[in-house]
C-alpha cells in the first residue's frame, strides 16, 4: 500500500488515479491547505472505488505514525508542500517549515516504521538559470527564491540520509511544467485566487473569468521572444511515479530523474494551441519580463526513459483539450 502525502492536490490526485490504474492501493493524507475534500469523491468516481483518506498534516508525528500503524504501507510518495514562488519570498519560514521540516518528519516516521521507499516531488526550479537546454540531471543546481531553496535543501538532505542508510530506495523526481487534467474533466488544477502559472491563466481567460492574458516578456532570445517551457501532461507525470515505484520493485538505490517531455513551447505557441483546443480567442498584451524568469527551460528526459522505462506520450493538443474540458465543467474549480 502506498502513502500519498498531499494526495488531494493537483499532482497527487492524478497520481492516485495512475496508481489505481496500475492496480496499487493507496492511503491519501492531506491537510486541505491547498485542496478541497470534493477531490476525494471525484477520484473515487474515476477509480470506481472508495479512497482511503486521512485528514492531517505531515508535520503531525502522531498522526503520521498512526497511519503506518494502521495500514501496511510499503512506500511513500511525498507531494505535500507549498509551491508558490512569490508567496515563498513573503513567507520563507512557512516554506522551510512545511517543505523542509515536513519532509524530515515523514522520513523520520518512515524510518521508525521500517518503510524504506520514498519518492520526492522536486522541481526544475533547482536548475536555477540553466546555461544550456535541454537540461540534464547533472547540470549545476541553484536556487533564486525560498521555494526553490526548500527543494534543493530537501534534495541535499536526501543525499546525506541515503549515505547513512544505503538500504533505502529514494527517487528525486524533478518535474518540469505540469499542465492538463484527467480526461474525465472531474479533477484538474484549481488555483486559489489569481493563477501564477500560464495554463490556468489562459484557461480562465478562455472561459471569460479574466479579460486578457499578460505575457511577461517579448524580448527573450527564443523563437518568438516569449519564454519557452517544457509542459507535461499531469497524467504522464503521474505515471512517472508509478514507473519509479516499479523500478524499486526490481532494483534498489537513489535516483534523480527529470520528468519532462524534452520539448519546449513558447507562451505564444501555448496561446495558439489553447485557442485551437477551445475554439475561443485568447486576448493578450505584452508586459515586462517577470522577475526570476528564465528564457528557456526544458528537459532532457533520456535518463527517465532509460532507467524507468517511462516516457511522456500526451501531446500539447491533449494537454490543452483536457485543461479546457476541466475548466468548462468546473467554472469555479471544486467550489
Ligand atoms: P498542490 O498544492 O495542488 O498539492 C499539494 C497538496 O499538499 C495540497 O493538497 C495541500 O493541501 C497539501 N499539503 C500542503 N502542506 C501539507 C502538509 N503540511 N500536510 C499535509 N498536506 C499538505 O501542489 P501540486 O501542484 O500538486 O504539487 C505537488 C508537489 O509537487 C509539491 O511538492 C510541489 O512543490 C511539487 N511541484 C509542483 C509543480 C507544479 O507546477 N505544480 C512543479 C514542480 C514541483
Ligand atoms: C513557475 C515557477 C517555478 C515552478 C514552475 C512550475 C516562478 C517564477 N517560477 O515557473 O518555480 O517550478 O512554475 O510550477 O513562478 N507567463 C506569462 N503570463 C502569465 C503566467 C506565465 O507570460 O500570466 C509565462 C512565464 O513568463 C513563463 C511561462 O509563461 O515564460 C510559464 O510560466 P509558469 O507557468 O509560471 O511556469 P514557470 O515560469 O516555468
**Count of alpha and pi helical runs:** 11
Instruction: Give a quick account of the main beta sheet: strands, pairing sense, barrel closure.
Output: 7 strands, parallel
Major β-sheet strand ordering? 3-2-1-4-5-6-11
Helix-strand string: EHEHEHEHHEHEEHEEEHEEHEEHH
Strand residue content: 15-25%
CATH architectural grouping of the domain at 2-180 and 231-260 and 298-312: 3-Layer(aba) Sandwich
List each distinct ligand once: nicotinamide-adenine-dinucleotide, uridine-diphosphate-N-acetylglucosamine
> How many whole angstroms does the radius of gyration measure?
19 Å
Task: State the assembly state of the protein chains.
Answer: single chain
Helix residue percentage = 40-55%
Mean of the pLDDT scores? 97
CATH class of the domain at 2-180 and 231-260 and 298-312: Alpha Beta
The CATH superfamily of the domain at 2-180 and 231-260 and 298-312 appears as NAD(P)-binding Rossmann-like Domain
Helix/sheet category: alpha/beta
Give the CATH topology of the domain at 2-180 and 231-260 and 298-312.
Rossmann fold
Shape label: globular
Strand count: 14
Alpha-carbon distance between the two ends: 30 Å
Which consecutive residue ranges, at least 5 long each, have pLDDT under 50?
Answer: none
Amino acid at each position: 500500500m502506498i502513502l500519498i502525502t498531499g494526495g488531494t492536490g493537483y499532482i497527487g490526485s492524478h497520481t492516485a488515479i495512475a496508481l489505481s490504474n496500475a492496480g496499487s492501493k493507496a492511503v491519501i493524507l492531506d491537510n486541505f491547505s491547498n485542496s478541497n475534500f470534493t477531490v476525494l469523491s471525484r477520484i473515487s468516481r474515476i477509480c470506481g472505488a472508495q479512497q482511503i483518506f486521512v485528514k492531517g498534516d505531515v508535520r503531525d508525528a502522531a498522526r503520521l505514525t498512526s497511519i503506518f500503524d494502521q495500514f501496511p504501507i510499503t512506500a511513500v510518495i511525498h507531494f505535500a508542500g507549498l509551491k508558490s514562488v512569490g508567496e515563498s519570498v513573503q513567507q520563507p519560514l512557512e516554506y522551510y517549515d512545511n517543505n523542509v521540516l515536513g519532509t524530515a518528519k515523514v522520513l523520520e516516521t518512515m524510518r521508525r516504521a521500517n518503510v524504506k521507499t520514498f519518492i520526492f516531488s522536486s522541481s526544475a526550479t533547482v536548475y536555477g538559470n540553466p546555461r544550456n537546454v535541454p537540461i540534464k540531471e547533472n547540470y549545476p543546481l541553484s536556487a533564486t527564491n525560498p521555494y526553490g531553496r526548500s527543494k534543493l535543501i530537501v534534495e541535499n538532505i536526501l543525499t546525506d540520509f541515503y549515505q547513512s542508510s544505503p538500504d533505502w530506495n529514494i527517487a528525486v523526481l524533478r518535474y518540469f511544467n505540469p499542465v492538463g487534467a484527467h480526461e474525465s474533466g472531474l479533477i484538474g488544477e484549481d488555483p486559489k485566487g489569481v493563477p501564477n502559472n500560464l495554463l490556468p491563466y489562459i484557461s480562465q481567460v478562455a472561459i471569460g473569468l479574466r479579460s486578457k492574458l499578460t505575457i511577461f516578456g517579448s524580448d527573450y532570445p527564443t523563437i518568438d521572444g516569449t519564454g519557452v517551457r517544457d509542459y507535461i501532461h499531469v497524467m504522464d507525470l503521474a505515471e512517472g511515479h508509478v514507473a519509479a515505484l516499479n523500478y524499486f520493485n526490481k532494483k534498489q538505490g537513489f535516483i534523480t530523474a527529470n520528468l519532462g517531455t524534452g520539448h519546449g513551447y513558447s507562451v505564444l505557441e501555448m496561446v495558439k494551441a489553447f485557442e485551437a483546443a477551445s475554439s475561443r480567442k485568447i486576448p493578450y498584451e505584452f508586459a515586462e519580463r517577470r522577475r526570476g524568469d528564465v528564457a528557456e527551460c526544458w528537459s532532457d528526459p533520456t535518463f527517465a526513459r532509460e532507467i524507468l522505462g517511462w516516457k511522456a506520450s500526451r501531446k500539447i493538443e491533449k494537454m490543452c483539450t483536457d485543461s479546457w474540458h476541466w475548466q468548462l465543467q468546473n467554472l469555479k474549480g471544486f467550489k
